[in-house]
Amino acid sequence: MTRPGPKLAPLNLTDAERSELERWVRRRKGAQDMAFRARLVLACEAAGEDGFPVSTAAVADRIGTTRETVGKWRRRFLKDRLAGLEDEPRPGRPRTGSGEQVADLIARTLESTPANATHWPTRSMAERTGLPQPAVSRVWRASGLQPHRSETFKLSADPFFAGKVHDVVGLCLNPPERALVLCVDEKSQSQALDRSQPVLPMMPAVPEQATHGYVRAGTATLSAASDAASGQVIGSLHRRHRATEFKKFLTRLGKEIPAELDVHLVCDNYATHKTADIRKWLLAHPRFHMHFTPTSSSWLNLAERWFAELTNKQIQRGVHKTVPALEQDIRTWIATWNQNPKPFVWTKTADQILESLASYCRRITDSGH
Question: What is the pLDDT of residues 203-252, one digit of tens each?
Fold first, then answer.
């Protein structure tokens, strides 16, 4: 039986070419377009069961691309070998720096730091590589590199992390019948701040201006329960943050929620949620069920996301001379929110969240995961 379709010319990789392609694939911090093309060529070089090179369609399915892309890079490799995998010159002003200089710049950015700083500024990198400073900026923009930026994260060490993720996300995605799922949390130490000098209003071409100095008038604690299905919020303001105040809030929830509904509360691991007094209250009210997020994973609690809305839109730039004024603004904001509530919609399942975190851990060589 003859092989369908035209016979593909073998690539006949030399040992040196194979070694270089494999090196490109292994470089986790190198240019990912070159790593992709190297994987593509290595997949094309593999022989099928009939002894002929693997078909273009099979290679495309294997590495997740189109047949046109496979054909393009296969032809370019057959014509120019390794040099054919580099980007072709583009029209317009000639690019500053060779392909090797650009690859070296990217590698240095990802794999090294300057002797006198924690990250590479454009001018230091330009001096180190011999490229003009604007060229360094263009390469970084094109490659999505931002050495001046840094973000923070924290991995949970909770031994029951996976189970709690499935529990919390499952409740929000598929709530039980005849039950209410409430994401509960406290926003403690909300400060009533008055600016030390008057705020200057916004004008054309001039933003609002406020002095960085402020006068503290006191703090308030907001307990809030956000309905995962409807987005409705029940809030209660207190002057202190103790189990006593949390118990009062639970009592209020018990009065406002219809008696025929079970109540599932998603909470964090703060001590006020686990005291003996709270456990006794829960035993006396069996329709209430507590579900705890994993430690260091408050992002799983939708109440935190609602608090971010409150902070950004009301508290952060607000001016409050007294705590009662702050509390009144918070009550008004909650009432306005409940007139047209918008629930926060989950975009990932529990399995997708766990897979994302596993991928994150694999990037950290000493994570122990």
Answer: 998 999 988 888 999 999 999 999 999 999 999 999 999 999 999 999 99
- Say whether both 110 and 35 belong to one domain: no
Helix (H, G, I), strand (E, B) or coil at 217: strand
299 in the same domain as 233: yes
Beta-strand pair 214-227/179-195: antiparallel
Residues 75 and 109 in one domain: no
**pTM of the shown model:** 0.67
Structural element, H or E, at residue 292: strand 288-292
How many residues in the chain? Answer: 369
What value, to the nearest 5°, has the Cα angle with vertex 239 and ends 319 and 195? 15
Q: Which two tokens stand for residue 257?
A: 């929620």
* 277-280 contacts, C-beta under 8 A, 24 or more apart: 277/243, 277/244, 277/247, 278/243, 278/246, 278/247, 278/250
User: Which residues sit opposite 320 in a β-bridge?
Assistant: none
Q: Give the chain's domain count.
A: 3
Query: What is the DSSP secondary structure assignment for residue 269, as one 8-state letter?
Result: -
pLDDT tens digit sequence for 156-170: 889 999 999 999 999
Residue 16 structure tokens: 């040196």
